[in-house]
Design a protein that fits this description.
about 400 residues; alpha+beta; globular
């Protein structure tokens, strides 16, 4: 028998639906009397959505205030997030002005550009700043940031962006791609082809009272989806990214962007993933039922998908056995994933086939070292977890 959402998980979804939509979902307050409040608050904190619940927890909870300790904890979480949101907002504006002053095209990804869509924008938690720049201007952009005390970090952990950091630890990611390369080369090629359109169709919008350049709505939705898929194919993602999807598509004004977005998703071979995410958000998080993004309805699959999201917490850090997901539960699928990781970790030298045996050995050594250093699970448990998640991936229709 397949696992089911527990009371706290179901209640958290209902509370988020209430916070995101302003409407009271059926059974909310009845379930609140049965669930464990401390477990609920802990879970919301692990998913970085606790600040979103400040209103429903501290003002509406069961028709009476939360307990003093719980109330103070939720309020503190909200206060810290609000302060960080404004700090990142004005820093984003400052950096955008610097780059545009140097004639470098720039777009704000996620962050305050998405927070603006929430009922209370300041409560959407963000920890860094993501900026998209053309690949041929990356070096110039990094030089501009370095001149403002944001030098490039010595250690880089991605191929699709360059991370700079301030003295007080704020990271600024300069993206030149929409997501980390996937194993599907057609998807990668199409993402690259789409990049000029992101800049051509950018819009300047008021984000929390500050005018910033963001992608046009079909393109912004595309980037949100690719960001989700990228994390899902690695260790997973938590509820916050699903909340972004809900607030983005719940607006009446954005419905006209659906056909163009679906064309973009189809061209990138990610439409089935978009439909699966939409199904889950409609089922559990208050996404409008009349959103015309596929008519798929599979309650069992939606619940399994959501259980995977709960297990991952923010970005797959909760489960020590979660690292990657493979397209099939087979020996060759694991081999292909290992080879793919080698190419991602060594994008330059892996072009030379003669060096592959050495690079395989290095990749394996790094994997085993990091596995021990980060106190990850046993290799066989990690592979078993990846295989189990591959079944869910196939049910969602994703092919690589």
């Amino acid at each position: 028998m397949s696992a089911k959402l527990n009371k706290e998980q179901r209640l958290l979804c209902l509370l988020l639906s209430r916070a995101l939509t302003g409407s009271e979902p059926q059974g909310l307050w009845e379930l609140s009397r049965e669930a464990d409040t401390e477990k609920l608050i802990y879970m919301a904190g692990q998913h970085k959505v606790l600040p979103l619940l400040y209103g429903v927890l501290c003002e509406e909870w069961r028709g009476e205030p939360l307990g003093e300790a719980d109330g103070k904890y939720v309020e503190h979480s909200a206060r810290v997030t609000v302060k960080q949101s404004y700090r990142l907002l004005f820093l984003t504006r400052y950096l955008v002005n610097l780059l545009e002053g140097a004639d470098i095209p720039v777009l704000v990804l996620k962050g305050c550009g998405v927070a603006e869509l929430y009922p209370v924008p300041e409560t959407r938690k963000s920890g860094d700043i993501d900026l998209l720049v053309p690949e041929d201007r990356l070096e110039a952009a990094a030089k501009v940031l370095a001149g403002e005390h944001f030098p490039v970090k010595e250690s880089q952990h991605a191929n699709h962006h360059l991370t700079c950091s301030s003295k007080d630890g704020i990271d600024v990611e300069l993206h030149t791609m929409l997501a980390e390369p996937f194993r599907n080369n057609e998807t990668n090629l199409r993402m690259k082809e789409l990049l000029p359109s992101f800049f051509e169709k950018r819009e300047y919008k008021e984000c929390m009272g500050v005018r910033l350049p963001v992608a046009g709505e079909p393109y912004q939705a595309m980037q949100l989806l690719l960001h989700m898929l990228q994390h899902f194919l690695r260790a997973g993602f938590g509820l916050k990214l699903l909340c972004d999807w809900v607030v983005f598509w719940n607006r009446e004004t954005v419905q006209k962007a659906v056909p163009e977005f679906l064309e973009l998703a189809e061209s990138c071979h990610v439409r089935t993933f978009a439909e699966a995410v939409t199904m889950v958000c409609k089922e559990f998080l208050g996404l409008r039922k009349d959103l015309t993004m596929g008519d798929r309805h599979d309650g069992k699959l939606a619940e399994e998908f959501l259980l995977d999201v709960f297990a991952a917490e923010e970005f797959g850090k909760a489960d020590k056995n979660r690292m990657v997901i493979v397209s099939k539960n087979s020996f060759w699928a694991y081999v292909k994933e290992f080879h793919y990781q080698m190419k991602m970790n060594h994008p330059g030298t892996s072009r030379h086939v003669v060096l592959w045996p050495v690079l395989w050995a290095v990749t394996l050594a790094v994997f085993l070292r990091n596995n021990k250093k980060l106190n990850r699970g046993k290799v066989r448990d990690i592979l078993r977890n990846a295989g189990n998640r591959s079944r869910l991936l196939r049910q969602m229709g994703w092919k690589e």
